[in-house]
Amino acid sequence: MTQDSADFDFTTPLDRRVYPTTKWHLYDEDVLPLWVADMDFAVAPAIQTALAERLAHPVFGYTHADKALKKTLCQWSHDRYGWEIQADWQHWLPGVVPALHVASLALTEPGDGVLTVTPIYPPFLKVADNTGRTTQTAPMRAPTQNDPLWRLDFDAMEAAVTPRTRLLLWCHPHNPTGRVFDEKELARLADFIERHDLIVCSDELHCDLILDGSAHRPLAMIEPRLASRTITLWAASKTFNVAGLTSACAVISDDDLRARFKRGCLGLMPSENIMGETAAKAAYAHGEPWRQALLAQLRDNVALIESFVARWPGVQMSVPQATYLAWLDLREAGLGESPQKALLKHARVALNNGADFGWPGFARLNFGTERAVLEEALTRMDALLAPSEV
C-alpha cells in the first residue's frame, strides 16, 4: 500500500522520559536536549509492525543476517546510489563505533597512525588511543564570505600524515558540518589515499538524509580504485531512528580486506542483533515513503533555524546539505570560552560542545525533533543571542 506524508506524524510530542533515554535523561527536566544524534520522531509504521511480528515468536537466540536482509540492502544501494553491491560483501555487526575500533585493531599495528579530519564525531578522536595507535588530525577549512561550505584542507592533511599512517577514518556525509563532498573533492581524496597507501573506513550513516538536492556518492563506488582498500559503514540507525537497536553493516568488496576485518571481529563483537536486523530489513524494504516525509520535515526545521540564526550577531551556520545536525560557530557570540555551557546554564538548551569535536567555540544542534520543541529551544537561545530591543 502506497503511503504519503499525511500518513506519518512528525508533530505529536512523545514522552521519551518514560523509558531510560540517553538524550532525555542526562540533563534536568527543564532542559531541552538537542544534542546526541537520535531523533524524537516515531519510527516508520513498517518498522513497528516488523518488530511486533518478530516479538510474537518468543525465542531470541543467536542470529545472523539472512538472505532477505542482504538482498534488501543490495536493492536499496542499487535504487538510491546505482552501486551494485553483492550480498557476500556484507558483514553485519552491532554498530559503527565498534566497527571503527575493529578496523584499527585488525588493519594496523600498535603505534601506527590513524588519521581523521576535524571537526568530527567525537568517537573518531578516541579510536587510536583506545587501540594503542597514534591519533592524527587535520582541520578542515571553515566557510568564508566567498565560500559558504566547509572544505577539506589537503595541505593540512599532507602535513598531518606520516610514513606510519595506515588508516583514514572518513565521514561522508560529514558529521557535524553536514557537508556532502562532491566528486572533485572525492577524486583529490582518492589521490591522497593512494599516494599514502591508506586503508579507509568510510562512515556513511547519514547518506540517506540529503537535504539540498545533492547526490551522495559512496566513496568505494565513485572511486573504484579505492574499492580494495575501503570499508563502507552503513546502517538504518540514523535515517530511520533505530540507533538503540545497535545494528550496522560493513560493506567490503575486497575478499582479503573483508577476511581481515571479519577476523578482527572474532571475540570482540557480540552476536548480531535480532531486533536491529529486523528493523533494518523493514526500513530498507518499506521505509521510503516515511523517509521522504522525514526529509520534508527536516528541511522545514532547517529553514526555521536559519530564520533565528539571522537574528544572532556573531553566530554563523553553514546550512547543512545533509543530516539533522546544525554546526554553529559561536566564537563571536559573546558567550565566553564555552558557548555550549552558557546556553545550557542560561537558556536551558543542551547542545553538543564543539570542543569534543576538536573545535572549541562551536556547538552541534540536533534538529531531528518536533517543530514545537525546536521552536521553543530556539526561542530560549534567542533571548540570549539576539540583540536587546530598547
Mind sketching the topology for me?
Elements: H1 22-25, E1 32-33, H2 45-55, H3 67-81, E2 90-93, H4 96-107, E3 113-118, H5 127-130, E4 134-139, H6 154-160, E5 165-171, H7 183-195, E6 199-203, H8 219-222, E7 230-234, E8 248-251, H9 255-265, H10 274-286, H11 288-309, E9 316-317, E10 325-329, H12 339-347, E11 349-350, E12 352-353, E13 362-366, H13 371-385
Parallel strand pairs: 1-11, 3-4, 3-5, 5-6, 6-7
Antiparallel strand pairs: 2-8, 7-8, 9-10, 10-13, 12-13
Helix pairs in contact: 2-10, 3-10, 4-9, 11-13
Top keywords for this entry?
13 helices; 4-stranded antiparallel beta sheet; alpha/beta; Aspartate Aminotransferase, domain 2; 2 domains; 36% helix
Question: What does this protein structure show overall?
Answer:
It holds the Pfam family Aminotran_1_2. Its cofactor is pyridoxal 5'-phosphate. It comes from Kushneria konosiri. Keywords: Aminotransferase, Lyase, Pyridoxal phosphate, Transferase. Belongs to the class-II pyridoxal-phosphate-dependent aminotransferase family. MalY/PatB cystathionine beta-lyase subfamily. The chain is an alpha/beta fold and 390 residues long. It folds into 2 domains: 139 residues, Aspartate Aminotransferase, domain 1, CATH 3.90.1150.10; 227 residues, Type I PLP-dependent aspartate aminotransferase-like (Major domain) (Aspartate Aminotransferase, domain 2), CATH 3.40.640.10. It is 36% helix and 14% strand. It contains 13 helices and 13 strands. Strands 2-8-7-6-5-3-4 form a 7-stranded mixed β-sheet, sandwiched between helices. A hairpin with an 8-residue loop joins strand 12 and strand 13. The termini are far apart. 46% of the residues are buried. The model has no long low-confidence stretch (mean pLDDT 96).
